[in-house]
Amino acid sequence: MNRPILDLIGNTPLIRLDGPSRATGCEILGKAEFLNPGGSVKDRTALGIVRDAEARGLIAKGGTFVEGTAGNTGIGLATVAGALGYKSLIVMPRTQSPAKKDALLAAGAQVIEVDPAPFSSEHHFVHISRRLAGELNTTRGAAYWANQFDNPANKAFHAGTTGVEIWEQTGGRIDGFIASAGTGGSLAGVAQALRTRKPDVAIALADPAGGALYSYFTEGELKSEGSSITEGIGVGRLTGQLTDLAVDHAYRIQDEDFLPILFDLVATEGLSLGGSAGVNIAGAMRLARDLGPGKTIVTLLCDAGARYANRIYNADYLAARNLPVPPWSQAHAGLSTAV
């Protein structure tokens, strides 16, 4: 079954990020994944998982896709499922941005919010979603657990689409690719596609504070330090998407590192992006400096800033955490509100 909205997933453009490029002497390009119909790179993950389940006969007509997600994969699943006549049930931590919950509801998803819990706990949102899928699947195909963290369809779809697009859009003139990891599907999938075509391309991880992958790729141990206001990235385990991945560089990106970059992109380039994009761009600048001037670095602009307006772009929220605030909030702080 074909639906026009599904044709809008993928084939997103590459955008030259002028400020980061000038600062490093490299071409830093961002793949505009926020232009996908569901608003994020996770539309690709959702489409890949849904099409794979259909191809293997694991979902019946009118069945329900169930997933545990910080939000964006759920939005993508709801979008794809709705287009193809399926339902979606999303389990998410109640600590996520309210805008994501609103987007899920607007996309037609049934949403269950749960308290945050470590992955080792049976109360973790992923484990709850798995159990719910099992309860709903009373007949074969009635429900399907998307399992984005370990489902090989995730990585495979990125390898077949995102990575190929980047190669073609750069004409093969790419020296490095870097991304943060939520499931790791985009990082591992793009790495696979690019290394097949150019074995010496540099692949790098950008990990926020609180993520354990930086220590894994630099010290061989999953170890988490600090915390971050980012959402959906900075995992604490080696997911199924990442088990075979080797990276050439890994960077720890603090909130203080990426926030000024995001604010500058808003003020000077008209780009309002989410926290994962900020981590990615900060990492791309680090990679560019390590590789040297004249190189071409590509990263992912995973989603837009509107979903995080009450956090990443909220001066009061940031100031309460001693984090940099948007310069425009300071510029207008002294203005009278009298009319």
UniProtKB/TrEMBL annotation:
Domain Tryptophan synthase beta chain-like PALP residues, every copy: 6-303
Record InterPro entries: Cys_Synth/Cystath_Beta-Synth, P-phosphate_BS, TrpB-like_PALP, TrpB-like_PALP_sf
Key word GTP-binding present: no
Record bears the keyword Amino-acid biosynthesis: yes
A family per Pfam: PALP
Cofactor(s) listed: pyridoxal 5'-phosphate
Superkingdom as given in the UniProt entry: Bacteria
Keyword annotations: Amino-acid biosynthesis, Pyridoxal phosphate, Transferase, Transit peptide
GO biological process assignments: cysteine biosynthetic process from serine
Pathway: Amino-acid biosynthesis
PANTHER family xrefs: CYSTATHIONINE BETA-SYNTHASE
Name assigned to this protein: Cysteine synthase A
Lineage: Bacteria, Pseudomonadati, Pseudomonadota, Alphaproteobacteria, Maricaulales
